[in-house]
Amino acid sequence: MEQGTQSTIVGFHQDGYEDWVADLSCGHTQHVRYHPPWMLRQWVITEEGRRKHLGTTLMCHKCMQEK
User: Fold this and answer.
1) Which residue range forms the structural domain that includes residue 10?
2) Cα separation, 31 vs 61, whole angstroms
3) Nearest to residue 43, comparing CAs of 7, 9, 4?
4) Total domains in the fold of the chain
5) DSSP character for 50?
6) Which residue has the higher pLDDT, 22 or 34?
7) How far apart are CA 34 and CA 3, in angstroms?
8) What is the per-residue pLDDT across 32-47, written as a single tens digit (0 to 9) for each?
9) What is the DSSP letter of 56?
10) CA distance 22 to 55
11) Maximum pairwise Cα distance, the chain
């Protein structure tokens, strides 16, 4: 069973708790937290790391829920 659809990261912003959120090409957003040992996305804490991930894809579970 398919778990989600791929969507391209087009930008980033921080939420009210200062966690990083990816802005996706589908119009949805997804948290991209760095909280070791559970979430190991160290790249998200630097501007260069976030810039390098622009154009990469994430699974968008919200898109699947809308289908």
Assistant:
1) 5-66
2) 12
3) 9
4) 1
5) H
6) 22
7) 22
8) 988 878 888 999 999 9
9) -
10) 11
11) 35
